[in-house]
Amino acid sequence: MVAESKMFVKKRFIGVVLLLVLCWITGCSVIPTPDVGTPSATVSTPTPVVTPVPTPTPTPTPDPVLVFMDGMTLKEKVCQLFIVSPEALTESTTATSLTQEMRDNYALYPVGGVTLFAKNIIDPSQVTRFNEDFTDLGDIPMFISVDEEGGVVARIANNKNFNVTKYKNAASVGSTGDTKNALQMGSAIGGYLKKYGFNLNFAPVADVNTNPRNPIIGTRAFSNDPLVVAQMVSAVTQGFNSQGIIATYKHFPGHGDTKEDSHEGIAVSYKTADEMLNCEWLPFMEAKAGDMVMVGHVATPNINGDMIPATMSYNMVTTVLRGQLGFEGIVITDALDMGAITNNYTSAEAAVNVIKAGCDILLLPANHVGAIEGVISAVENGDISIERIDESVYRILKLKMEYGILN
User: Fold this and answer.
1) What is the DSSP string of 260-282?
2) DSSP letter for each residue of 204-260
3) SS3 of 25, please?
């Protein structure tokens, strides 16, 4: 019995050893149970379940322009669409400093900008102070603009009290064929404009001087070759921008092949769309979203089939300039106090018409109060949608933010 008992124990011991070896080979683990009379049970280690942590959805950054616009009234929005002369704010025929009367009138109609002419500019200290006062005038800082093309149209350079770089005209720069000269021109002009407190220049002239009978463009254009004009306006604009000055390409759809002066009446171009696409419109294709394009009071009967000035033409402003040519920046009218407009429209009528056409900024209406009230009435009676107004206000405020005019 003793021998049998020993034999049983020995066999059981060998069995346990073999089981352990087998488990080691197969990767199983065994835990012997306290019951010596039964084989040990095997227990598999469970694989832990990892619950993925969801990535939080980032909160979109609010558009600062839209946030700003949310706090604006309809009147404030409409006023942003207007750039006026200093005299529009006073009974005086010549304004060279900001008076209390001008402050009070501005408070009633806080326009989006002001433009200075030669009569408003005396010397460096005066114009700098004048522009500083305009900058601090309202809650929404203004575009402070000037016509400083270089040449015959130069409000600063043609004033003997200013020691700045002077240019004979754009044509003399274009004739060099070197865009570096145009770049230097823009940088020089932009530098002194910035120094004296301006932020917007109504230049360059992007017209192609193809009509020798043209009474208004001539040497203000860089060339009679559209490719040269395109290269030069692009370079001079880079110079303006490098000094923090906004550029304005003018006068779309092209004033270079007209024989009328739009200061007196509507100018006319008899070219077809294909002809303009291959000539007049080439320089305007250089304009970027951070620039402005000024639309002239130029009728194009062989494109539009009527004598309506481009400033009031939906086809010319929205279909062609924005749609076909792809311009996404601000569209500004030529001066609305010119004969081409005042001979045919009231200030209110003109304002409503140019906004319907797609223009963003209305420059120098003959009666800015009447024009503003006319646009407000058009919105209130449904003739112009608030969305159309917001579209222009957004472009204006966005550009002001980009150039640090509005912080």
Assistant:
1) S-TTTS-EE----HHHHHTTTTT
2) -B------TT-SS-GGGSS-SSHHHHHHHHHHHHHHHHHTT-B-EEEEET-STT--S
3) helix
Residues 6+ apart with CB under 8 A from 57: none
Output the pTM of the full model: 0.85
Q: Which helix (H) or strand (E) holds 332?
A: strand 330-333
> How far apart are alpha carbons 229 and 237 in whole angstroms?
12
d(CA 65, CA 401): 8
Angle among Cα 75, 83, 134 to the nearest 5 degrees reads 95
Residue that the structure tokens 């616009």 belong to:
69
- The radius of gyration of the chain's CA atoms, rounded to the nearest angstrom, is 36
Question: What is the three-class DSSP state of 137?
Answer: coil
Instruction: Return the closest-CA partner of residue 222 out of 239, 240, 234.
Output: 234
The distance from CA 313 to its chain's CA centroid, rounded to whole angstroms, is: 21
Among left, alpha and beta (phi > 0; psi -120 to 50; other), residue 14 is alpha
Specify the DSSP class assigned to residue 57. P
Span 16-74, pLDDT tens digits: 434 443 444 444 444 444 444 444 445 556 666 667 777 777 778 899 999 999 999 99
Cβ neighbour number for residue 372 with a 10 Å cutoff = 24
Residue 108: pLDDT band by 50, 70, 90 thresholds?
A: very high
Query: d(Cα 161, Cα 228) in Å, to the nearest integer?
Result: 33
Phi first, then psi, for residue 280 (nearest 5°) are -60, -35
| Cβ pair 213, 199 in contact under 8 A | no
What are the two backbone dihedrals, phi and then psi, of residue 216, each rounded to the nearest 5 degrees? Answer: -125, -25
Is residue 101 a contact partner of residue 163, using CB atoms and an 8 Å limit? no
- Using the Cα atoms of residue 13, residue 14, residue 15 and residue 20 in order, give the sign of their dihedral: positive
Task: Give the length of the chain.
Answer: 407
ω into 253 cis (within 30 of 0): yes
